[in-house]
Amino acid sequence: MAKSKVLVTGGAGFIGSHLVDALMVSGSDVCVLDNLSAGRLSNLKQWEDNPNYNLLNFDLTNPLLPLEGREFDFIYHLAANPEVRVSSTNPQTHYSQNIVATYNLLEYLRKSRTTPQLIFTSTSAVYGEPTVIPTPEDYAPLKPISIYAATKLACEALISAYAYNYGFRATLYRLANIIGPRSSHGVIYDFVQKLRSNPCKLEILGDGTQTKSYLHVKDCVSALIHGSGVSSEQVDIFNVGSEDKINVRAIAESVISEMGLVKVDLEFTGKVDGGRGWVGDVKIMLLDSQKIMATGWKPTLNSQKAVKQTAGFLAHRDTAK
Fold this sequence. Notes:
Elements: E1 5-9, H1 14-26, E2 29-34, E3 53-57, E4 74-77, H2 91-111, E5 117-123, H3 147-166, E6 170-175, E7 177-179, H4 187-197, E8 201-204, E9 211-212, E10 214-216, H5 217-230, E11 235-240, E12 246-247, H6 248-258, E13 265-268, E14 284-285, H7 290-293, H8 303-316
Parallel strand pairs: 1-2, 1-4, 2-3, 4-5, 5-6, 6-11, 7-10, 8-13, 9-14
Antiparallel strand pairs: 9-12
Helix pairs in contact: 1-5, 2-3, 4-6, 6-8
């Protein structure tokens, strides 16, 4: 990535800002495009005065991208609405911020004089509720059960078609649950906020047996950069996750321990079919990441260690930093 020209959409967000950090350290020339609806300028403050860094405050749902005359070697497309839980109540938002935004970026690529490699962050949720666990990339049929997952799968299809029709390469990453510093949503963040409000009681959505793989954001970023350099396919897909999984009850216990609390009553809602946390919640998820691991990438932390580290960080630091 040294000396490469890179565009990162959603670069002020949780994963995006960590990716920008890594790219800047590598010596890349980085342009961030973000509407700052969820991303934070504080995530990128350390690069404000660096001549190799540029921020464009722009909403990708607007088709008139402010990129005329710019050329890139790589485009990392992370801009999206990540809230899986609310996608069933507001599908229009996910359609616009995920599908329309991706279409507008692809139209920019179609009309571009250059052919940068496009790297897209999809989700493990595109598999729906697979019968094969760990789930490999070639699992089928794909039957997403959340609107969020459906929009990500639609984006995958659009990217694939555009890549084959207009001659650029695309690498698609189906990510496990990514956690770590700067996260502002997800189960660990929610638990910390609830326990700060009431350290004696913790409401847990579902029955606590939801079991999934969690990956630290540093490992996620290393995979995003590594995989884009080893793929030789026109369109390639990589699962990215840890090799183990952890249930929600264990996560709650880890957060409680890291916050130094005792005698916390756990209250499980258990309201959604089969003990799910919400409509569209995949209850068991574990990706088969052997494909990318065979190229030399490997996570440094398993799910349990990533959860513990993230819980400790969010419990003891200002989450806005």
